[in-house]
Amino acid sequence: VIPTVRGVGRIDADDPSPFTNVWATSDTNVYMTVAGILMQAPTNGAVYTIGTVNDVKWISAGSEDPLGQGRIYYASDGANFTNLIATVGNNQAFPGGNTYNWPVSPLTEPSANARLRVESGGFTHETPTFTVRGIRINQPVAGAALTIGGNAPIAWKQAGLSPDAAVNLQLSTDGGLTWDPTPLNAVPWPANAEVFGWSPVTPSADPTTNAMIRMTVVSSSIANDIGYEARSRVFTLKGMKIKAPTSADTWVLKSTNVIQWLSAGAGSPVDIYYAANGVSFDTTRPIAANRANVN
To answer: How far apart are CA 167 and CA 32, in angstroms?
Structure first.
């Protein structure tokens, strides 16, 4: 039944002749309200891709919300709903049509069993299941600290891609402005694996509090998959890296030279040691002790 503020009832006689075509309607001068909400989009089996804008549509009448507002909820598993849009206009004037342009956030969990629900004034209705297509990187989480040279999983959730889709994973140490052209994976990695063992965490990487991972679909039997990308939240690559001196430098005895390094998540202060043979550092005689370390 479609909610409406212009409802009219009709009764027909079902007996045989001569009572055929005998009917009556309710008073058309005073319409009745059929209160409720009816979801119209997304429809069963629809595909909404992360990063695109899609219509959420419903019809509403008689909800009696004092502010004329509604709320939209999302369930990636089709059952456990969480708030998606806290406040949305809910038109109830005939014919009661409503449309919300939903920009599907990269933080939305992909699912082949997704549902939306609209609530207003005690009334609610849910969509049939549809697909939220794409990839969401779940690990590393925002603000995580991964030790350079250590081991860490990169984990994600994906839906709506071809079963044979494969991805490359790349690292950025500047918040996504530039990306290391060499993927972390030696060969394209199955998107449906949903985890990649980053081992070791790139030893040559610069320590940073502004690291990101990017996943890009590089092969798929569905042409539209290729080029799709997802990015992690910003995290920390923990460690220190000496930038000067380099292997090309020659420092003269009794001269003054600058030692430079990068640091992230390593704490402060630091001590600096010297090894004449390149191996054995004299930790009893630092060349600089308790130096401030900017992370």
So the answer is: 56
